[in-house]
Write a structure and sequence with these properties.
This protein has a single domain, classed as Ribokinase (UDP-N-acetylmuramoyl-L-alanine:D-glutamate ligase), CATH 3.40.1190.20. The N terminus and C terminus are likely disordered. It has an 8-stranded mixed β-sheet with strand order 4-1-9-10-11-12-13-14, with helices on both faces. The chain has a 4-stranded mixed β-sheet with strand order 3-2-7-8. The protein is α/β, with parallel strands linked by helices and 387 residues long. The chain is globular and about 55 Å long.
Length: 387
Amino acid sequence: MSPPIQAPAPFQAPQAGATADARFDVVLAGSVFFDIVFTDLHGVPSAGTEVWADGMGSTPGGIANLAVAASRLGLTTSLASVFGDDVYGRWCWELLEEHEGIDLSRSRRFENWHTAVTVSVAQHGDRSMITHGHPSPISSDALLSDGISSRTALTELGVMSSLEQEPWWLRAAGQGTRIFADVGWDDTGAWDPAVLEPLSSCYAFLPNEREAVEYTRTESPLAAARALAAHVPFVVVTCGKDGAIGIDSATGEEVRVPAVPVRAYDATGAGDVFGASFVLGTLRDWPLEQRLTFSALCSALAVQQFGGSLAAPGWGDIADWWEATRASGDADLIRRYGFLQDVLPPERAGAVRRAEATFRLIDHFPPGRHTISGAQGAAPRDERPAG
């Protein structure tokens, strides 16, 4: 039997009004990957064989999943990350900044440091991945060392990038920023309760059901949520196809919402979409049940696409779903999601970008440094190995 959880300290409210004039709705920090996703494989690859895939997509990954999800819902989003000076890094930077409207003023580009790459295979609603990369030349704490002006921040417990100083999000919490936290998978199987000690500085905690049960040494997601609610104002335990459980520790309100039934194509980024949606509902002061219901819908829309960050829905996707649902006559869904009529933007939102197989190389090279097949008058290549 695992030892009982050592409870973190009780929640202490941050300074009131400290973020009234915040520049951003959301700030986050972490690593951006260049993801190549293969779908619709003809079989399962094994040693010495080659398998073809009918689909392929290129997309920013890692922390970009969360940044894009937040920005597409209209939250002003700032990302602190490190980008390589290679084509992959430039493409990710331009897509996030120019196409998705994400602030990158706290991010940095580094010469001779290449972008981390993940190749993933999407099968049966899940993924297998291979990743290559190098440690970041600068920490998130350093990128955000001169202060944060944001109403909320999203972070992962257990990620302490510096032993010499307080993590960036703990400093932000002390200044009044509301912290929405999740927790990473523990592949050691220890599920050390000490990881949860910073919960006293968080506003909301959003683990999945396995993480919640393991860290609290309880027998069910509901029991885990109740144990965690003693230490953080809001707890949300996501339960996959079984929906989500939420508890408001101040009022004692407990809410359970079902998942939206869809055919899941790729679950990557679904948790990020859920978290960003919950932040939106919180900033709009929605009731807890409405926040959870909306988050369940957004994550369901995301899993119907492939490509992680670029699978995140925009308001146009939500409006299309609501229109189709009303036309279907599904009384239960229409009742549960009737609030969408009041929260959808009055202007029709345009389509969001989805993952594409590849991109034009010539669009991401500065003039006069690279030779492109078919390009006339280009200078010879001038580049050094990135490692």
